[in-house]
Amino acid sequence: MTDLLLDKVSFSYPDGTKALEDFSLSVRTGERVAIVGQNGAGKTTAVKLMNGLLKPTSGTVLVGDWDTRRYSTAQVSKKVGYVFQNPDDQIFHNDVESEVRFGPKNMKFDVKRVDELTRWAMDICGIAGFAEENPYNLPYSERKFVTIASVLAMDSDIIILDEPTAGQDKIGLKILGHLLDTLEQKGKTVITITHDMEFVTDYFQRIIVMATRQLVADDQANKIFYDAEILEKSMLKPPAVAQMAKMLDFPDGILSKQQLINAILQQRTGH
Ligand SMILES: Nc1ncnc2c1ncn2[C@@H]1O[C@H](COP(=O)(O)OP(=O)(O)OP(=O)(O)O)[C@@H](O)[C@H]1O
């Protein structure tokens, strides 16, 4: 069980850029959370603080009962796996299987567990067919799945995905959705940064909205995408279904196509 807590955290980069101000967030074990917000809002900085890549300038980050300031990045990253935004920052082996195998091997798991985790992670990410391929011969979307598999194979309690939806087609998004459901069944905590609001409404209940270094909202999608103040502050564009429901003057909260169809049918039949 590893809960996550950021308590009044501020962070400035060495060049003086303030990236996070008085940011607090608590995530319970097994939760699935999306972080959204405009470019430069501080999302990546927040998640790098969660896995110990960055240490707070002020405030506290707790991973379970570990204060990240007292532990090395290598130690924290065993509990909090982080998939980088850009896969090319993470890949350094010449074939996919070695890349995925490296993490669990480095964790000193026994050979059987390394084999099982490597196979499982490649299967669930849809890359088992490319095991011997050089990752750099694969397209961006599949390289991203190689990095996701590399982190999943380490079996950490908390998994952070930084923009996994970028460059993904419908099949890639389906694989990601299935992966989120499987991780939830395994009791893993998953925190996902994404700019894809349809993906957010399809797969997440709890949404963290960030803007200009701060938390703007921490609520359910059906509240956030109908709250004019939150949308204005964060410059978020609601998913198409919510925009349409708003234009048609339907009650707030509609997010899925089926809910929209039901509302249209109800209006036409009068009940
Ligand atoms: N290494 C760095 N040195 C200095 N400033 C940085 C560094 N990395 C990020 N920043 C700045 O910190 C602020 C927050 O950046 P961050 O990457 O956390 O935002 P983000 O919400 O993840 O944005 P995006 O959606 O574009 O990835 C921005 O002003 C950014 O320019």
Note down, in words, how this protein is organized.
Residues 4-237 form the ABC transporter domain. Keywords: ATP-binding, Cell membrane, Membrane, Nucleotide-binding, Translocase, Transport. InterPro entries: AAA+_ATPase, ABC_transporter-like_ATP-bd, ABC_transpr_CbiO/EcfA_su, ECF_ABC_transporter_ATP-bd, P-loop_NTPase. The protein is an alpha/beta fold. It folds into 2 domains: 4-237, P-loop containing nucleotide triphosphate hydrolases (Rossmann fold, 3-Layer(aba) Sandwich), CATH 3.40.50; 239-271, no CATH class. The protein is 40% helix and 22% strand. It has helices at 43-50, 73-79, 96-106, 111-124, 140-152, 170-185, 197-203, 221-224, 228-234, 240-247, 257-269, and strands at 4-12, 18-27, 32-37, 58-63, 66-67, 80-83, 158-162, 189-193, 206-211, 214-220. The strands form 2 sheets. A 6-stranded mixed β-sheet has the order 6-7-8-3-9-10, sandwiched between helices. A 4-stranded antiparallel β-sheet has the order 2-1-4-5, covered by helices on one side. The longest helix has 16 residues, at 170-185. The model has no long low-confidence stretch (mean pLDDT 94). The site of adenosine-5'-triphosphate has 12 residues, from helix 1. Adenosine-5'-triphosphate binds at residues 13, 15, 17, 19, 37, 39-45.
Structure described in brief:
The protein has 271 residues and is α/β, with parallel strands linked by helices. It contains eleven helices and ten strands. The longest helix is centred in the middle third of the chain and has 16 residues, at 170-185.
